[in-house]
Amino acid sequence: MQNLVFKIPTSWNSLSNNQLIKISLLLFSKQNTKLLDYKLFKVFVNYKWFKFKILKKIILLFKVRQVSEIKKHFYFFYKKQDLTRFIPVVKIKSKKYFAPADRLTNFTIGEFSVCEDLYLGYLRNVNNKEANFGESYLQYLFAVLYINSKNKVRPIFNKDLLEEMVAKTENVKTKYLFAALLSYKGCRDAISSNKKYKHIFPKQKEETKQISEIPQSSGFSDVILSFSNKVFGDYHKTFKTNLYTFLDGYEMALSNLPKDQK
Description:
single chain, mainly alpha, two-stranded antiparallel sheet
């Protein structure tokens, strides 16, 4: 056993782009989940089909060690999906599309509002074969997240042009849709679990999460509308406000409400 030495990542954000793609395919595509731990381990150690020596070592490891023992070495994967970075650049035909900043720090509340509704739409249809398992929502989600800009600066987002944006990215490969979904989920989870925003995202009981239906909308579009002509200006200025700037203002407004109105 002395020669069975493997180097594996220690966190979600330390995964390579290629590993993110492979893991997202394992998680979101309709693959057989049997032997998932074995498949994940091969991704973590960067196994490729032509690396026969590594494959022999992997097979031997899983023969002489319990899966539960092996999983301890990539416990981060099961503990919390805290991925907060994206694959920086995705090439579609001859054009490059650039991801948002880590943790969506250069995102607007308007972009986040649209992405949240698209994410919920995907969740509602993830098991719906007639809706292609929600993949159309991922097409739209990708179009909002990734931008084609020479200077990599995100242009002002106009949701009325979303159909046009989707048409430009419709040839993106499914693996990049899943990778974008994985990264977005990590970012939104990081935001919603941040104690700084405890009034915006109140903690739900575990049993409530299991029985509650997935809503049609996140409600952020209504929140943006309610904030119009107040702290951040009119509706258009509010829509274009930085995501975290808006959340800070919204959290402050909620924390100042009487207890019976929170």
